[in-house]
Amino acid sequence: MPLNLPKKYSTLLDLAHLPEHKRTESLYSIFKRDIEENTQFKFQSKQIWPVKKDGVDTMQTLFNHLTRRDVYEDGKKTGARSFEMARSQRLHWIKTHIEGTGGKIDVFSYKDRIRGKDIIRTYIHDPSQDYIIILEPLKTGDDYYLLSAYYLNEPGGKDQINTKSKKRLPKIY
């Protein structure tokens, strides 16, 4: 059995000593188990999907997004992503929080302004672990897209989530 498969919430995955290809292999085995091959990957009885993009392997894109972060140069996104240890060490927390079995979580919906449009997003926040999962309800309201999940270790990240929580919508979408 691979090293990290038996890890449970709230332990961190052992990744620092692994060469890059072994680290990716270990993380992908967790991603496959918890997300890609999990037919019951649901939040509040709604199925969770990767964001669809034509001509793109959506599962690989989602995996890269959950284990890597945007690269910036001179304050602008370069379009590249690089491995992020803090995000990756918590990959197995996603399933735990989606199932509602990990710690005390705060769930709320908030209307974000994205590229000039109001978009409702649902946040699953574990304040004791400074962890956030962001879902976007499909237009039908029947399912969700998994947008992101990460450790709140960036300056202003916790404040931003706390501000959104205070201005939450009256119901969860």
Quick summary:
With 173 residues, the chain is of the alpha+beta class. The protein has helices spanning 20-36, 58-67, 85-88, 93-99, 157-166, and strands spanning 42-43, 46-50, 68-73, 76-83, 106-114, 117-126, 131-137, 144-151.
What does this structure look like?
This protein has 173 residues and is α+β, with helices and mostly antiparallel strands. It contains five helices and eight strands, in the order H-E-E-H-E-E-H-H-E-E-E-E-H. The chain is globular, with a radius of gyration of 16 Å.
What are its keywords?
single chain, 173 residues, alpha+beta, two-stranded antiparallel sheet, 5 helices, 8 strands, 28% helix
Q: Beta-strand level of the residues, as a percent range? A: 25-35%
How many helices? The count is: 5
Largest sheet: 6 strands, mixed
Radius of gyration: 16 Å
- The percentage helix is 25-40%
Structural class call reads alpha+beta
How is this fold's topology laid out?
Layout (H helix, E strand, L loop, with lengths): L19 H17 L5 E2 L2 E5 L7 H10 E6 L2 E8 L1 H4 L4 H7 L6 E9 L2 E10 L4 E7 L6 E8 L5 H10 L7
Parallel strand pairs: 2-8
Antiparallel strand pairs: 1-2, 3-4, 5-6, 6-7, 7-8
